Amino acid sequence: MAETLPSMEMLTELVNRFGEMFAEKKKSRNMIDFNDMEHFALEILTEEKDGELVPSQTAGEYQELFEEVMIDEYQDSNLVQETILNSVSRVSQGIWNVFMVGDVKQSIYSFRLSRPELFMEKYHTYSLTDGSRQRIDLHQNFRSRPEVLDSVNYIFYRIMKQELGGIEYDDQAALYAGAKFPELPGNISYDCRTELLLLDKEETGDDDARSAEARMIARRIRELVGKGVVLDKETGEYRKISYR
């Protein structure tokens, strides 16, 4: 650590100087980016007290303005967003008027510093019974046929564990069919089972594997458009698949 200290000090100085120059350039053009908006909001809505960030007077005014704070895709929140949203909610008053929706299995933004552990902390501590901090598990899926959900469950029961993804894929995490699909018309012979397309890269050669995969998928799509059907949500009836 002692040997790397001079290099780290120089790196820190360069990063700070770059940040200052970048901020000056944006200011000269009267521009801010998304990260600027987040941190300016953080400065306005919080203040330091006894070494901790607490809601500012401005945040207190918003707390009275907002009856509820609703957050979608909560599994991808980061600490800055969490602090901002908590500051304009009434959590600091002991009033839990925050409603969050998310699925930690869909968390994909760790490279943007999202913190899925924020979701998991609430998942493990909120109660399933009535109360100020209640967890409501949404098990039913209204988009997909049972054949699709059964295949998804089959795979993830086996590979998604606490040590891989931070959640145990059990009966509480599984997907259950919520939509009702009418029987296929008698004149249509169609297999709804999930299928798996496999490409042997040994036969295509590494250089051409991507193109071969694209051709395989395009060929299957063309076959489906020719003979497959899909349930039309507007009419409630089956119609031929179209390119859309």
Summarize the structure.
The protein is mainly alpha-helical.
Descriptive notes:
With 244 residues, the chain is mainly alpha-helical. It is 42% helix and 10% strand. The protein contains 8 helices and 8 strands, in the order H-H-E-E-H-E-H-E-H-E-H-E-H-H-E-E. The strands form 4 sheets. It has a two-stranded antiparallel sheet with strand order 1-2. A two-stranded parallel sheet has the order 3-4. Helix 6 links the parallel strand 5 (140-141) and strand 6. Helix 2 crosses helix 4 (79-88). The chain is extended and about 75 Å long. The mean pLDDT is 90.
Task: Provide a count of the helices.
Answer: 8
- Strand arrangement across the biggest beta sheet: 1-2
Overall shape: extended
Class inferred from helices and paired strands:
mainly alpha
Strand proportion: 5-15%
What percentage of residues falls in helices of 4 or more residues?
40-55%
List the uncertain runs: none
Order of helices and strands: HHEEHEHEHEHEHHEE
- State the distance separating the first and last CA atoms: 57 Å
The gyration radius over C-alpha positions equals 26 Å
Mean pLDDT: 90
Quick one: biggest sheet? Answer: 2 strands, antiparallel
